TrEMBL record:
<feature type="transmembrane region" description="Helical">
    <location>
        <begin position="40"/>
        <end position="66"/>
    </location>
</feature>
<dbReference type="Pfam" id="PF01925">
    <property type="entry name" value="TauE"/>
</dbReference>
<keyword id="KW-1003">Cell membrane</keyword>
<dbReference type="InterPro" id="IPR002781">
    <property type="entry name" value="TM_pro_TauE-like"/>
</dbReference>
<keyword id="KW-0812">Transmembrane</keyword>
<feature type="transmembrane region" description="Helical">
    <location>
        <begin position="104"/>
        <end position="125"/>
    </location>
</feature>
<feature type="transmembrane region" description="Helical">
    <location>
        <begin position="78"/>
        <end position="98"/>
    </location>
</feature>
<keyword id="KW-1133">Transmembrane helix</keyword>
<protein>
    <recommendedName>
        <fullName>Probable membrane transporter protein</fullName>
    </recommendedName>
</protein>
<comment type="similarity">
    <text>Belongs to the 4-toluene sulfonate uptake permease (TSUP) (TC 2.A.102) family.</text>
</comment>
<feature type="transmembrane region" description="Helical">
    <location>
        <begin position="132"/>
        <end position="149"/>
    </location>
</feature>
<keyword id="KW-0472">Membrane</keyword>
Length: 153
């Protein structure tokens, strides 16, 4: 839990001190992986973190995709969803193999996630980058608070 809380606090601080690091200004050109090798490092570290901890990896992927490769927040979020779906499906397969899946709560959660995704994608497509940037900041702060409460309780 310390890694999750630390990564969330770091991201919140970066968003306050230099918000364009995580959320590029509209019209900023996307950077290719070939021209920015440090983006490989960011994506690799987010992948390792996601494979090990998973909680909060979306924020790290957004930081790598929007901050490192300069994708706008809508595209960065779409790529984040693809990445998390890939390693979540792999993890699900392993949990199914070991018969560790609680199907009823999992399916209820999946339905809730699909409904939430439907409405949040519609909102994200229509919202301004500034609104998305502040919403991302609020979500990071809430995740920090949840991580701290979890570590205390």
């Amino acid at each position: 839990m310390l890694a999750q809380g630390g990564s969330m606090v770091l991201m919140a601080l970066v968003m306050i001190v230099k918000p364009s690091t995580v959320a590029p200004e509209p019209g900023t050109p996307v950077v290719s992986l070939h021209s920015k090798p440090s983006a490989w490092v960011g994506l690799f570290l987010a992948g390792v973190y996601g494979g090990f901890v998973q909680a909060g990896v979306g924020f790290m992927l957004i930081a790598a995709l929007a901050g490192g490769l300069r994708y706008d927040l809508v595209r960065a979020n779409a790529l984040k969803v693809v990445c998390t779906a890939c390693f979540s499906l792999l993890a699900l397969g392993i949990f199914i193999w070991y018969d560790l899946v609680l199907w009823v709560p999992g399916l209820i959660l999946a339905v809730g996630c699909m409904i939430g995704a439907h409405y949040s994608v519609r909102f994200a497509i229509q919202a301004s980058q500034a609104t998305l940037k502040w919403l991302l900041f609020v979500m990071v702060v809430l995740a920090c608070g949840a991580a701290m409460l979890d570590s205390v309780g």
